Amino acid sequence: MSGCGTRRATRGGPGPRCPPTSGDVQAAVLNVSGWFDEPYGPAGAVTNFVKLTESRGGPAGARLILGPWQHGVDAIQGGLAGKRDFGPAAARDYAALVLDWMDAHLKRLPAAATPPVEVFVMGANRWRAFPRWPVPGLRPDTLRLAGRADARTIGALRREAGGPPSAIASDPARPLTDPFRGAYGAHDYAALAPRPGLVAFETAPFSHPVEIIGEVTAEVAVQASVPDFDLWLQLYDVAPDGTAWNLASPGTGLVRASYRNGGPAREPVPEGELVRLRMSQLYTANRFATGHRLRIVLSTAFFPLFSVNPQTGALETESAETRAGVIRIRHDAEAPSWVVLPVVPDAGRYWAAGAVIPAGPSLTSTNPPHYLAPRAPRPRPREPRSAGARWTTRPSPFRSTSTPSAAASRMPRRWRSSGWRSSRH
Which one of 24, 42, 339, 424 is CB 3.0 to 4.6 Å from 218, fit for a cystine? Predict the structure, then answer.
């Protein structure tokens, strides 16, 4: 299992914490994460997988699985993330994944062929398999911020930039707060925009299905009246009825202006000077159905998921003083702002051909796919016992309270008897 993680924003925003030598690891590494995974995150899983495959010249001994999950074993074994139900196809048997991996790479036992990369596409609610990451054949599609966006109006995402600057009145004493109080997973953010404290932009309704898989990046032209501020970005799939599901964890997608150049030292933002903020490592996979829209929201805070920037030039850990200001986002021809989407151009042909990873109706299916099918238990030698010793039995730590595990019988005895529990997936 991989050990890269992410950090929340106090100093520069979230990002992978993979050591520079992580690509030198010689062991087989299984990278499992979810689009709504907070502590580990797809950024950590992807960064780790890419470093390994680059150093090895291919995906040998490395695997990447990205599902529609929050953090934790129970989340992987269910189809619900926050308030959004992705159906039974989203569930995977975590114990089977881990033990199959260990059987193949530690015990050298024969194993079924598995793709190096498996991705769950939200909206389609199906799995896709790929030979590498980034997935092959993607077409970067640039959409520019345009139109008028304010507390009452949602701007446009289109090919050409244009329109007056969009202003955010940013007051650290009254930050934009998450209406779901920082709850993990997917939620309906239809009521979030428009409102004071943020600006939002969206496409026209799509005339045909559009699928994106991978890293979404953005570059935003900004002028500010304060020496430092944060900028947070989130993506939403907006249905014709107005439902707006977030497509990534709300605890990602934030940058701090004073770290805009990537160095360890903070660089204040000169008042009124145009600066460009680059936003990256926002990973997702989603199929926008016909009639749906892509919406992005930009704000200077999203409490309590991030600590609040005091906007004085000092860190929130250094001073309790705050300073209100105005953050102007430029999106005219001289200072455009944009978002780049990783579009899958062959998505329609792919789904029509039915080239998807098989998925049973549930983990308790009478005919599960290969990665959920239990193997026949293999005999193992009994451990010697001292006179008078008694065996104790505890419930499997891998067993979900809602979904039975297909591989509990293959867990090492020391895990079953000690109450071992995974702290990460």
Answer: 339
Per DSSP, the three-state class of 289 is coil
Going by their DSSP bridges, the two strands 29-34 and 210-224 should be labelled as unpaired
**Residues 168-193 pLDDT 10s:** 999 999 999 999 999 999 999 999 99
Please give the structure tokens belonging to residue 104.
Answer: 């193949």
Longest CA–CA separation in the chain, Å: 84
How many structural domains is the chain composed of? 2
Nearest to 46 by CA among 98, 89, 6: 6
Structure-block tokens of residue 335? 């200072």
Among the listed residues 119, 108, 111, the one whose alpha carbon sits nearest the alpha carbon of residue 46 = 119
Rounded CA separation 355/357 (Å)? 7
The tokens 């196809």 sit on which residue? Answer: 89
C-alpha angle 27-29-33 in degrees, rounded to nearest 5: 160
Q: Assess whether 93 and 226 both reside in one domain.
A: no
Question: What is the separation of C-alpha 170 from the centre of its chain, rounded to a whole number of angstroms?
Answer: 26
- Are 166 and 43 members of one domain? no
Rounded to whole angstroms, how far apart are CA atoms 137 and 122?
19
At 189-242, the pLDDT tens digits run 999 999 999 999 999 999 999 999 999 999 999 999 999 999 999 999 999 999
Distances (CA, A) of 79 to 115, 120, 245, 260, 408: 22, 11, 15, 37, 20
Residue 38: closest CA among 71, 80, 79? 71
41 and 164 inside one domain: no
Pair 259, 332 in one domain: yes
- Give the predicted TM-score (pTM) of the model: 0.80
CB 128 within 8 A of CB 349: no
Distance of alpha carbon 179 from alpha carbon 155, whole angstroms: 22
| Whole-Å CA distances, 263 to 15, 72, 217, 313 | 14, 33, 19, 16
